[in-house]
Design goal:
The chain has one domain: Jelly Rolls (Sandwich), CATH 2.60.120. The chain is built from two helices and 14 strands. A hairpin with an 8-residue loop joins β6 and β7. α1 runs antiparallel to α2.
């Protein structure tokens, strides 16, 4: 009986220590949009809210700084996105967009889709737009320009290791940009239910130790 209790305790310790890392997908549908002046809304691929203070989905918060933002089926394509108008342009006063995890723990940003990054509101980009994605570690990456809306190909932005283990990331501009929009954030890969490689290694080390314990008390 004593040997069994020791083994079970060791198993519990290994499982608790190993843990798992799960993926989060943010597509701006089904979360909660907190509206300027009070009230909330739930995007459903058919409506648009143009007075969003901040938005929460799957444990993450996206905050519009300096102005309200837009969330919903903004391009009338049956698909929810976020959209904002920079202070450097002609339509808004947005100075940054900041994304954080609600529980305050670090995370990895892997991928998102850019839907608009243009200095011509509602039109094609000039190629001169300077919009940046910034990590909490001080790293910044210039984003490609993109025409307004879903016309043409929307760039898929894959991030490197500079965006691993960050506390937040943000978007800012350094020249004249009007319209900016995004969709489909992938955060904290691997996929749900699959332990992270580091967790698997830790678990295997723990199991090896468990085998030693089992032999010792056999």
């Amino acid at each position: 009986m004593k040997r069994t209790l020791v083994v079970l305790a060791a198993v519990a310790m290994v499982l608790a220590t190993a843990g798992t890392s799960f993926g989060a997908f943010i597509d701006f549908t089904g979360g909660t949009a907190y509206l300027s002046g009070g009230g909330t809304a739930v995007p459903n691929n058919s409506m648009v809210w143009s007075n969003v203070d901040y938005y929460e989905e799957n444990g993450f918060k996206l905050d519009f700084i300096g102005d309200v933002g837009i969330i919903g089926d903004y391009y009338s394509a049956g698909n929810d996105v976020i959209h904002g108008h920079w202070a450097s342009g002609n339509y808004g006063t947005l100075t940054s967009i900041v994304v954080t995890k609600l529980d305050g723990t670090p995370f990895d940003l892997n991928y998102f889709i850019l839907t608009s990054n243009t200095d011509t509101g509602g039109g094609a980009d000039s190629g001169n737009e300077q919009t940046w994605i910034n990590a909490s570690n001080g790293y910044s990456q210039l984003l490609p320009t993109d025409d307004w809306g879903f016309a043409g190909t929307n760039p898929q932005i894959f991030l490197g290791t500079q965006f691993d283990n960050v506390m937040w990331f943000s978007f800012t501009v350094t020249n004249s940009v009007d319209c900016f929009g995004m969709d489909n954030f992938y955060i904290d890969e691997p996929a749900p239910g699959i332990p992270a490689p580091g967790s698997l290694l830790l678990a295997s080390m723990g199991l090896a130790g468990l085998a030693k314990i089992r032999r010792r008390f056999a």
